[in-house]
Amino acid sequence: MKKDYYEVLGVSRSASPEEIKRAYRKLAIQYHPDRVPPEKRKEAEERFKEISEAYEVLSDPEKRRLYDMYGHQGVSQTFQGGDFSWQDFSHFDDLRDIFGGGWSRIFEEFFGFNPFRGYGSSTRRPSRRRGEDIPIEIRLTLPEVFQGARKRVEYQRWVRCKRCEGRGALRETVCPTCHGQGQVQRVSRSFLGTFVQVTPCPTCRGTGRQVQEVCPVCQGRGRVMEEATVRLDLPAGVEDNSILRVEGAGHESPDGIPGDLRVRVRVELPPGVERQGADLLVETEVPYPDLVMGGEHTLTLPWGENVTLRIPAGTPSHEVLRVEGHGLPRKGGNRGDLFVRVKVWVPRKPSRKARKVLETLREVMRPS
Asked: What residues make up the domain containing 304?
């Protein structure tokens, strides 16, 4: 799960743009991958990307507004792949100001591309984005695990806005800064020669278009939130903490491509019941004579099934007995085993007759 962007940069939610920039500058210097020991370089690269993602969002007024309102889901649509990558970063000039002219070489060495060399041809178009997955959790009782269950799950998901077809605008024009290319070039000259720097267009943020009329339905997001329902068929014997994936039931991107719904199953066990795969461990109390002389004891399992437990003579208290084939169903159709921990039953208020018998038993069993 992603961290809060404000926590990543170590600033308050009311921080000014200047405070955000100062915080990013300090952390960028701290986690510069070329300024840490080799054994910490991988960690520094991940941390550097994390603070850069937070800076990209919080330094942009519109992205910051979406994040404050909707969290990470609100800004994911502004990233080309639905999740942040370096192609979404628009502040390479800030990095050059911090680290100087050698930064482009370092960036290419550690992250695999040179931001000051451009992202490809001038006709590049962003790839179609996939929507985010939605994680949810459902709870099952042990009887539902034994029998299998059908569950109706209601949740909310982002879907592509039908009014603007995911564009976020009813009217738009070609960006006057980049003329629809989505990137701009800056030429600089020095005694070393002429250098061309290609970066995403700051006006349109790489889209090549400029909004003239924001869509009133989605408020420029390209997506709207809707209620969704799925029906899940859960097989008998489903494991605790397992994840079921429902393809195409997640959030839709503005391009209309949905992610998946990921359903985590949590099994609620009754008190005194433990589970290991398809095997179950339960506890039961039996009278002392049954432990000494042997006997039979009837157990009612959580799903209503009655099982006869045969107790061998001389069974000590807390011994675990095994009843084969009375656990939970397995995938192959057979069942696991039931393990029963037997404990001696002690009456709190024995009757007068029982007390007489116990007194006699105590005398008989008293060590000589």
From this structure: 274-365
Domain of residue 111, CATH code:
1.10.287.110
How big, in percent rounded to 5, are the helix, strand and coil portions of the chain?
A: 30, 30, 40
Specify which residues 281 forms β-bridges with: 274, 339
Please, are residues 207 and 125 in contact by the beta-carbon 8 Å criterion?
Answer: no
- Span 255-284, pLDDT tens digits: 889 999 999 999 999 988 999 999 999 999
Q: How far apart are CA 55 and CA 50, in angstroms?
A: 9
Residue 172 β-bridge partners:
211
Last residue of a domain, which of 88, 117, 146?
A: 117
Task: Output the domain CATH number for residue 346.
Answer: 2.60.260.20
Task: Label residue 230 by pLDDT band (50, 70, 90).
Answer: very high
Would the pTM count as exceeding 0.70?
A: no
3-state secondary structure of 335: strand
Based on the number of CB atoms within 10 Å of its own CB, is 246 exposed (0-12), middle (13-18) or buried (19 or more)? middle
- Residue 210 resides in a domain: no
Torsional class of 84: left (φ above 0), alpha (ψ -120 to 50), beta (otherwise) = beta
Per this entry, what is the length of the chain?
368
How many distinct structural domains can be found in the chain?
2
The pLDDT tens digits of the residues spanning 82-98 come to 678 777 777 776 776 66
Note the pLDDT of residue 316: 93
**CA-CA distance, 252 to 245, in Å (whole number)?**
16
Query: For the residues of 66-119, what is the DSSP string, one character each?
Result: HHHHHTHHHHHTTSTTSS--GGG---HHHHHHHH-TTHHHHHHHHHSS-GGG-S
| pLDDT at position 128 over 80 | no
**What is the average per-residue pLDDT within 327-345?**
91
Asked if residue 260 belongs to a domain, the reply is no
CA-based torsion, 93, 97, 98, 104: positive or negative: positive
Give domain status of residue 189, yes or no.
no
Q: Note whether 333 and 308 are within 8 A (CB).
A: no
CA dihedral 101, 105, 111, 115 (to 10 degrees): 60
Q: Last residue of some domain: 83, 117, 151?
A: 117
Tell me, yes or no, whether 23 lies in a domain.
yes
